[in-house]
Design brief:
By secondary structure, the chain is mainly alpha-helical. The chain has one domain (17-128): Arc Repressor Mutant, subunit A (Orthogonal Bundle). It has helices at 18-44, 54-60, 67-75, 103-113; strands at 2-3, 9-10, 52-53, 88-89. The chain has a two-stranded antiparallel ribbon with strand order 1-2.
Length: 135
């Protein structure tokens, strides 16, 4: 960056073109959509009455330790999506706080209707944290 004699800054060097920025944004959107699709595919395979943690979903989706990306993907779901978002809990086995009041209660009710049990601290019992159906 250079400063001209009138005090205004003048940017020099390699400025990216508008087309370059659009391509980069498009690539980023495609990567996000692909990542979200992998998350949704894993979540759709969680059996009724079972839960996984955000970290377990991330690992199964090939995202390594990117548990937060799972949360972002589930947050991006449209209303009335068939993806069973409610079957994903945090690493402590708890329902994560939401920005929308009442969403935690909705998730707990959905899980309880599927037979998932919670302990006195509001955590999912360890036996429910798997892809294996109960016997």
């Amino acid at each position: 960056m250079e400063v001209e004699s009138d005090g205004d800054a003048k940017f020099t060097g390699h400025a990216r073109s508008a087309n370059s920025l659009r391509r980069e944004a498009s690539r980023s959107m495609n990567e996000t959509e692909g990542r979200n699709a992998r998350v949704y595919a894993v979540v759709q395979r969680i059996p009724r009455g079972r839960v996984l943690t955000y970290g377990q979903v991330a690992a199964a989706a090939g995202l390594g330790a990117m548990a937060r990306q799972v949360g972002y993907a589930l947050h991006a779901l449209p209303d009335h999506s068939p993806v069973p978002w409610h079957r994903v809990v945090n690493a402590r086995g708890e329902i994560s706080r939401r920005s929308v009041p009442g969403a935690e209660l909705e998730q707990r009710i959905r899980l309880e209707l599927e037979g998932v049990k919670f302990d006195a601290r509001g955590r999912v019992r360890r036996e429910w944290l798997s892809m294996e159906k109960a016997r």
